[in-house]
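Input chain follows. Return structure tokens only.
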Amino acid sequence: MKQKKIIYLFLFSFGILIGQNTRATIQSGPIDYIDTLPERPLCAVPTLTNDFITSHIERMKRDYPEVYSKMQNPPILSKTSNIGSFEKFWVMVDDEQGGQKSEEIVAELLAKGDYTAIWADTSKISGSPNISKSLADQYIKLLEKSTPLGSRDTTKGVYQLELEYFGSPPNKDGDGIVDFLFADIFSGAGGYFYSLDQTNGAGSNRRDIVYIDTYASISYTEGTISHELQHLIHYNYDTNETIHFNEGLSEMATIVCGGGYISHGHYLNQADQISWAWAGTAADYSMASLFVLYFVEQLGDKSIKDFINLNAGGNPMQGWLAFNQLMTNYGTGLTYRDWLVDWYTANYLNNKVISPKYGYDLWMPMTARTTAMHLSGIVDSPNNTVPIYGVNYISYESSTDSMEITFTSTGSFAPKYRSLEFNDSSLVVNKLTDGTKHLLYHDSLKVNSASFVVVSTENTSMSYNYVSDGTDASGWTGFEEIAYDDGEADLFTTSDGSEFGWLGWGNDFEGRGWGMRFDPKMSVNQLVELKVVVGFDQEFSGSGTPANADKDFNVHFFEIIDTLGNVKPVADPIKWSTSRADITGNWSTIDLTPYKEQLSNLGEIVITIVEDDAIGTYFAMDKNINGKNYTYAYNYDGDQTLSSLANFSVSGSSLAGWNYMFRASFYISDQTLPKLSAGYMQHSIFTDVMKIYVLGNSVMSAENMTITANNAGYESILETLPVASNDSLLMVEQYKLSTSGTLDITVRGTMRYGRSNIDTTFKYNVNYTSSNIGGEIASRDSKYTMSIPEKSLEEDMYLVVGMDLSLPGSEKLLRSDNLSKIYTIGPVGKQLVKGAHVSIALDGLDYNAVSIGYWDGDDWREIKTQLSDDGLTIEGIGTHLGHYTLISKGSGLPLALDEEELIPTAYSLEQNYPNPFNPETRIFYDIPESGHVTVAVYDLLGREIIKLVDQIQSPGRYNILWKGDDVFGNPVSSGIYIYQMNSGPFKHTKKMIISR
């Protein structure tokens, strides 16, 4: 298309300042690992109280008198232990009744530095993922030499940093060494510091020691080291610090040392539901961490040590009393009650541009979740509760200008109330009084939205009501401002180096205009507002237009009807004018609510501003980061059509990717009943890494949805991203599996414009499968199984199986004539060297009418199948990992198989896996021809324990699960057992070990 030239207004010195403050959005930053926190406390210190110690000692005396007698003997301590030395330690382990007991272990000194030493239970050194001789050296380096990027000083170790920022550890045993003992500690603990060790009581190790669990990842362990060291240091100054401050400071230690701290999303995602009463959940640790982080960022790093050192008359001060003193010492003029209100406001806004006290320097994964959102100004909300020292957030997204609202407590205590009122140019913060009506009115500025922070500043939950009286916009489920700019105007540079910030037709172009395309997404909607950054000719220096000339234009609403830019009006044009004195560079707001009847239930429209006279109108410009044009010229050739701004140039420089600063706001109603599906894609090489997709039946938003993953107890909140090409699709770009077991992907929230709460869990199974051994994996409904023989996988990998996955481009796969769920085992497309045994439950279908289908990317391929011995499943040999389902016999293309590769040529009995095992193991065997097969387990005296297989089997590769029990279902004891296979001429025996 021929390039078109536009008249523009050249400005030398006029600067554009957009005063548009919006509520704090989630900032960009690194991925939130959430530190794949297991479903257990980060540390056990909150449970190991003085009362616990007293009760525990009495229990040991009563239930374990022989052990208790040994506990009274003082430990043998050596101040000169060398690497390779062995010593005995008391540790807390699980007992037989679901509680804890003290147990004496033997530990080896694996590594030692100038200030720290690493010990490990000798029985755990070879089989634990987080301790070995080399790892012990690595931990000493972390403690005494260097810390990761992100620490306060990477040239210092954890020990030196905590010495500098937190204080000195005690020196109970006089050797100047802090001992870190790796052991299989009791369930529910990732690590702990035990105050008994700082006494001479029974069972005390009488040394400066912390404990690390041996069943944790290395990265988790590194964070736990810095966390537990803070507890030891803190005890040296205050033996009775309150839980939130003690745990929060331990998490602060991890941040100071550059470790993997707990994700603050655990708390922010449910901030309105979490109280200051300690429950030991991930959210409690996250809340404590966030509170300490906030006061450290506000007061400075020095405040850490100042808080820990607070004393009253020589006695340590704890909790809120200590924090109040810290506020006084730092001259804040605040009490902890005032501080709480500021902190909760910062969690909601996270915007230090508004005020330094309303945000964080450290990246946050989200802002605090809203308790209630209203689109109508007419609200009567009784029986609300704010938790102990907790918060509620009430949001009014529209209908707030001149709205009156009253908050009234209904209990013995009244919460603190704060309003956050957003007008056209700023945020206004007000303190509200209980039982007193508050008016949202800002003189000449319109209050566009408001939020209210409701805080309990006492050690009790508080109940309250609120009533508001404003504009009724009830029935709408969403309010959406559609914008294609970043809120800041950009200067356009021409090929000759000239710059300008405003563009227009100029004077004497009546009837021409500029439009912007907007799509409200939902069919039920109302266009309520248009905002533009506009200037009129007479407002610019050097203009010859009289200062008192009209400042007005017409607003048209068009629908594009063809590719030529022809349009049809969807509403009558509106004339807008202003009597402002000068150009402001701020947004001008055009209220469209009076035109509700015509501007409702719109499709994609182009809102067009058309010159109504000879006075030129100009608009601020923005360079859109995605390079798309949403702006159109109207009636350029007098043909009343629209032409994209990308078709125009100025002084030879293209306007492609540029847009005017127009914004449109809609009320929206999403009346869709929410329905979600999910899918995943594994990395072809790093199979523990996967992308996760969640597909909805309406418009979705990452801000409205929280996706969590729980892999066999290791839970994390995932960073959720929108997919630009599909607004009904959300994606988790990278999730890393932790272990074999279950994988639950839980999605909670609402659709972008919906009110219905969504709480859906998608269930998968995960199996880390050895190429040498093979393995079996089944779907969570137990109706699909794939058994993979040894050497069929080219490498060890994670296998993941799910049902009816939804992925981009999977529409053809999910066709309606499938006869069962579609089962997917990933990584999809991996070829199996020896194939795999696939079985799917028939669920009453006629075996003669169905086959197993494998999806090859374009079509279903029909697998040669047979009926199982019990007649309940259909079985066949699959050649790839991927999608399998039941299809009508003959409806799929035949899948060619090389039977010589899939059927064994010799008998074989493989080593069981795992071995040693507890509680179950799997035995693999091959038979090359049909015949009677037995597989039996014997003890070392030759007595048969159980017969696992005793039947005629056809040629193939098999595996059988033994759950470690006898023929009567009783679990057998630890020890060595023999398993033997007999089939035709073949007889072979192997040993296996069960370790209870």
